[in-house]
């Protein structure tokens, strides 16, 4: 049954004998299940990725989603958890070659989607973050995500949400790294400079220049980025 719904096999006689026709051929009834499966998942993806849909159109994203679904069945029975690999799929999707920024924009949308469903935790102020770093226990708060791109993904996201004129965004503006953070129930985006991104990406890397990071940590702590690990295990 699973293989038939996923489109990997044709229904055999053993399976069709178990299907109550109720006015339809067993093959037709199984096709209804397959159509419902694909429609439910593709609509779920469209709901998670409205910004890329605004850029390339619903038919394009719908078609890409249906292709993605065929090779990427859900791993758990939760629609909200489906789609984490969609950005990687878009990066290799031949029809998306003309819009190379779409994959990174999808990564940003997925980060926002995940954060919307995560509870905020208590964070550290600057002094506490300095202490945690010195003790090797500084960590990113769970309601924080980083998305690095060689495209201006924050500006693109703002254009897609109507916060910035689309004609004001150009790919030659260069890359942007986004800090997505949930604050008071809403997900906000901040641009990170190279030093901030390097620090946040490698908090537990041996050889971090402690003195050089103090000012950066203070600024990031003001945004509610850090928490403290209860142990000294690697991030």
Automatic annotation (TrEMBL):
- Does the keyword Acyltransferase feature in the UniProt annotation? no
Q: Does the keyword DNA-binding apply?
A: yes
User: What protein am I looking at?
Assistant: Putative DNA-binding protein
Task: Give the organism the record lists.
Answer: Eilatimonas milleporae
Q: Which UniProt keywords apply?
A: DNA-binding
Domain called Putative DNA-binding: residue spans: 16-90
The upper taxonomy is: Bacteria, Pseudomonadati, Pseudomonadota, Alphaproteobacteria, Kordiimonadales
Annotated Pfam families: DUF2063
- Gene Ontology molecular-function annotations: DNA binding
């Amino acid at each position: 049954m699973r293989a038939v719904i996923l489109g990997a096999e044709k229904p055999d006689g053993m399976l069709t004998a178990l299907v109550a026709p109720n006015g339809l051929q067993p093959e037709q009834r199984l096709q209804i299940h397959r159509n419902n499966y694909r429609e439910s998942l593709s609509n779920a993806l469209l709901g998670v990725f409205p910004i890329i849909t605004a850029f390339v159109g619903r038919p394009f994203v719908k078609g890409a989603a249906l292709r993605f679904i065929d090779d990427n069945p859900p791993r758990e029975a939760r629609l909200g958890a489906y789609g984490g690999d969609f950005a990687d799929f878009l990066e290799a999707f031949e029809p998306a070659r003309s819009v190379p920024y779409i994959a990174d924009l999808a990564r940003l949308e997925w980060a926002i989607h995940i954060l919307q469903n995560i509870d905020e935790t208590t964070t550290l102020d600057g002094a506490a973050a300095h202490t945690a770093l010195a003790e090797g226990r500084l960590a990113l708060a769970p309601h924080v995500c980083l998305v690095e791109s060689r495209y201006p993904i924050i500006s693109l996201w703002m254009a897609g949400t109507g916060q910035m004129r689309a004609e004001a965004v150009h790919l030659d503006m260069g890359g942007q790294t986004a800090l997505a953070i949930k604050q008071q129930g809403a997900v906000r985006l901040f641009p990170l400079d190279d030093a901030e991104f390097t620090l946040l990406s490698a908090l537990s890397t041996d050889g971090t220049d402690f003195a050089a990071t103090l000012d950066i940590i203070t600024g990031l702590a003001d945004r509610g980025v850090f928490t403290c690990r209860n142990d000294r295990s690697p991030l």
